[in-house]
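Aim 2 progress update. The chain analyzed this quarter is reproduced below.
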Amino acid sequence: MPQADGLPQDLWTRPLMADALATCDMSTVIEGVRTARGWSQGDLARELTYSQSWVSRVVNGQQSLTVSQVQDLARRLDIPLHLIRFGGGVAPEGTERTGATLTRRRDVVGTVATGGLLASATHGPAGWEVHHGIDESTGSSLRAITGGQRRMDATSPARHLLPGAVAHVHLAEQMLANARVTPFHTELSAAASEASGFAAWLNADLGDMGSARMHYRTAVIRARQAGMRLLDVYMLGSLAAFEIETAEDPELGLGLVQEAEHVLGRDSHPTARAWLACIGALAHAYIGDGTAAAGALRRAERDVNGPDNAHPPWPWVFVFDEAKVAGYRALVGVRLRSPHAARAAFAEAVAPPSRNVKQSALIKVELASAHAEAGDVDEAFRLAQEALATGARFASERVVGRVRSFRRRYRGPDADCVTELDTRLADLVSGIPSG
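Predicted structure tokens:
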């Protein structure tokens, strides 16, 4: 039988394997390991010490697995358990899952849920006694809740989501405290980090800078406790973007980007490097350093065009591609008061309309700024009014604040469209629509 030599270093980031890990599609994961090691199905069965018929059913997606079985198989095959997302995940952009894959995911998740309930009543893996209800499914359950909340953020006001998100942070922190002496502390630290990161996002949307900053810092701390470098970098970068764009403190944001780049290191996934470079470019643009901003964007472009950028690593969901870099180039152009370059970049970054209408509204405000700088006042204020309507509908202080900033920066001639935006902004303050 072939020896269990080391697996290829990029195995877990290959598109098919990464998607399988993100959906707990163990049949695909196990088959990928078997192929990478050059084993026959019989070799695989002997390595796992299970019958060949049982292994065949697993590989063909015909055998549901309990959490304990997933953990046992992962241990025997050197599969990183922290990469397996028991609660499921979002398919990468441009990826279409088959009905068979979805069926396998439902089977596994259903069995995981049942296994978790049984484990809560008895014992965890290897006879470990469950402590305060913590078991193999706790972390994945907490992450699944955060994932559902994030999906609702696309079409729901932050004020409706925030109470539940804050309660979820408290729950995650309590479960983490309970898990201090268990084997699940690392996984629950990551779950608590994600919960705090989302609460920070909602508070920023509502204009509560202090609470947003507190939750972002907690998210970074929990990510470091989890020992997950990419999650640490993701939360540091998110805090940096918040300080740059929302708190308008680009110097602090740039320092956070540099810290995140140090944590990330050079031998890392290009998606993470490109994303951080773009956030850094935005910070340089806010400061007024066009040369440094251009250099950061060039680094991002090199990374996104590299052969290893085919699939993003968790916690990134979508590939960071040329269109996304173009979007940042457009934002940099707006901040550097280069309207023609900004509008050209916006055109290059055009993608199908986002389901996240609040995010689309923020983009409209930036595009409005580029049009205003270019002298196209009517189009600029049309976009600003559309963004303001979205901000008012979702009570998003983030969106409304960006529209206010756009209006304060405008120094062009008076026009009917300018007066109309002023009236709508006044109506928001007074709460009384103009007659």
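Confidence is low (pLDDT under 50) at residues 87-130. The first helix runs from residue 15 to 22. These observations will guide the mutagenesis experiments scheduled for the next reporting period.
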